[in-house]
Amino acid sequence: MRKKNPHLSILISVGGGSDGSSKYSEMARDPAKRRTFIHSVVDFLSSHSLNGMDLDWEFPTMAGNDAGDRHEGRLEDKHDYVTLLKELKEAFHPHNYILSAALTSGKWSIDRAYDIAGVSRYLDYILLMTYDYKGPWSHKTGHNAPLYPNPADSLEDRQSTTQFTIEYFIKGGADPKKIILGVPLYGYGWTVASGDTRIGAPAVKGIELGTYGEICQMVKKPGYQVHWDDHAQVPYAIHGNTFITYDNLRSVQKKLDFVLNHHLGGAMVWEVNGDDFHNHCGDGKFPNMKLMMKVLNHVAVHD
Predict the structure, then answer these.
(1) 58 in catalytic set
(2) Phi and psi (nearest 5°) for 267?
């Protein structure tokens, strides 16, 4: 990849949603264990000629050994997390390594887990996971990654939007230039009661639906009705008693406009292989990635 783009920065990512939180809490609270971890990271980056690390601890102040075991943990993690970032940044500085971290988007979790100003001080990029606001775990239908709120919604739902999360971080002391807006290349669905396919309808059963590349084909089939939410600025689709939430090129464009209008650092996706990489839907290969490159970097990528 570097032969094609010598300016490419390649980072390792440590952690993830299924990696649990307890072991990170144990490491971050102990100065000796932090030193061991940081030394191993610097050694790994140097040995493999990499450019930095993304810390995906999900999440400070929570406990558990995997995503299905997540529960409330040590409140002291909030302080220890900043200490860990500070020491990582100090160790990275002589090598000019990049330090980023993936952070949650829910207000309750943000308040509990992050000293926003402290986090912003030591990170080069703040990767906000502005998705999973609603999903199969929710008791009612809604949007996976709404950009804006509906004024008629509850306070909790109005706070569960990309706009709220990003503006909340900025008000909390985050440097907008470091904030990276997260775009999901996947969707969710629910089975609903007969005839009740409105946004916010009671959910009978949640569905892990698939990637953008799969959903863009699905909603073209007979029987699917694609709608646009003028408040949230995202699409949704209905098929019989199934409600589908996802992002499309139109909603991604709206989010990229938000990045530019708020002078943010950029955008990211979860994940690249969720795009339509075979051009099954007629917009070219990797249409979302190409749109992001065009809008944010003024680079036209051709198949």
Answers:
(1) yes
(2) -140, 160
Rounded-to-integer distance, Cα 5 and Cα 221, Å:
39
Rounded distance between C-alpha atoms, residue 229 and residue 245, angstroms: 11
Question: What's the predicted TM-score (pTM) here?
Answer: 0.96
Backbone angles phi, psi at 188, to 5 degrees: -130, 170
Q: Which of 58, 87, 90, 214 is labelled catalytic?
A: 58
Tell me how far apart the alpha carbons of residues 175 and 173 are, in angstroms, rounded to a whole number. 6
**First-to-last C-alpha distance (Å) of the chain:** 16
pLDDT tens column, 45-87:
999 999 999 999 999 999 998 877 889 999 999 999 999 999 9
Alpha-carbon distance 263 to 167, whole Å? 12
The C-alpha R_g of the chain, in whole angstroms, comes to: 20
Distance (Å, whole) CA 238 – CA 19: 34
Cα gap 74→261, rounded to integer Å:
37
Q: Work out whether strand 242-245 and strand 186-192 pair parallel, antiparallel, or are unpaired.
A: antiparallel
Closest CA to 294 of 257, 261, 263, 251: 257
Q: State pLDDT tens for residues 25-37.
A: 999 999 999 999 9
Q: In what order do the strands lie in the sheet with 266-270?
A: 11-15, 52-56, 98-103, 125-128, 179-184, 266-270
